[in-house]
Amino acid sequence: MPGVGQGRWEYREFVERLEPYTGGGHYTSRGYPFHGLPDERMREPINAALQAILRQVSVDGWEPAEPLDATRLWDAERVSRKYRGSPFDFFTSGVWWTLLEVRLNCRRWIPS
Hints:
Elements: E1 7-17, H1 19-22, E2 27-29, H2 43-57, E3 63-64, H3 70-75, E4 79-84, E5 95-111
Antiparallel strand pairs: 1-5, 2-5, 3-5, 4-5
C-alpha cells in the first residue's frame, strides 16, 4: 500500500502545452487580477491539459501531488502565460493574455 511499509514517494513535474486546447487564441481581462483567473474561459483549456497529463502518466502509477484546480494553479504560477498591456490597462479596456503551458507535480509510490 502506498505510503505504508518499505518504499518512498517519487515526485516529478509534468508539462503540457496549452496551444492545442486554446487554438492559439487570446483572452482579455480588465487589468491584472491579484487572485484568480483573469478570464473564466481560461478554465476549460487548463482543465483539458491537466486531464491529458493524467491520461498519459497514470498508466505508470503517477497521481497528482497538488490540487487539480485551474485557479489554484494559476495563483501558484503553475500556468505559464504571456500578457500584453500597459500600467493604465486597469482603467482602460484590458489586458491580452496568451496561455502557454501548465505544469503539474505528480507522485508515485516506489516500493523497496
